[in-house]
Amino acid sequence: MIRIGQGFDIHRLVPDQPLKLGGVLIDSALGTLAHSDGDVLLHALIDALLGAAALGDIGDHFPPTDPQYRNADSAVLLTHVLGLLADQGWQIVNLDSTIFLEYPKLQAYKDPIRQRLTGLLGLPLESVSVKAKTMEKLGAVGTSEAIAASVSVLIQDQTADQDALD
Ligand code: MG
Q1: What's the pTM?
Q2: Å from CA of 69 to ligand 1 middle
Q3: Span from the CA of 65 to the centroid of ligand 1 (angstroms)
């Protein structure tokens, strides 16, 4: 059995805050304003994973009103969600992501982010795609008021590999 999931996240950009994407610190004049570490890519990934397994959304599991998630490391939240999926017998097949940001250009960061995701997820490099695009100066992302990310994932039942061998 296979399932597809998608996730989206957006955060406001402000001066003098760190900008983290996929757990990688980005050299940027603007960073995310958030209750947690504001990592839009990991938040979209978490929602995609929860969605694929029909386990609710990130707000159900990590309420922004809960003080224990203040400045939370999103990689830790992701690890928790991976455990939830594993408990139900799901494993990730692949993921594809897009980051929407006007500045800075993310060309040099795409590979480090991809490497970091493969480490967090225990996936081979070819199963992890990280894309980046600007919004052509349009809308909140285009005027650098915001950063957004979108992620799609495919998950499969862990017995699928075994079935293939039988
Ligand atoms: Mg978020």
Answers
A1: 0.94
A2: 12
A3: 13
Residue ranges of E strands in the chain: 2-15, 19-21, 24-26, 30-33, 90-100, 128-133, 146-157
Per-residue pLDDT of the chain (166 residues), as tens digits, is 999 999 999 999 999 999 999 999 999 999 999 888 999 999 999 999 999 999 999 999 998 888 888 888 999 999 999 999 999 999 999 999 999 999 999 999 999 999 999 999 999 999 999 999 999 999 999 999 999 999 999 999 987 666 665 5
Measured in Å, residue 40 CA sits from the centre of ligand 1 at 5
* Spacing, Cα 56 to ligand 1 middle (Å): 15
**Ligand 1 center from residue 15 Cα (angstroms):** 18
Yes or no: say if 154 and 4 are a contact pair by the CB < 8 Å rule.
yes
> How far is the C-alpha of 117 from the C-alpha of 127, rounded, in Å?
10
- How far away, in angstroms, is 91 Cα from ligand 1 center? 23
Ligand 1 geometric centre to CA of 160 (Å): 32
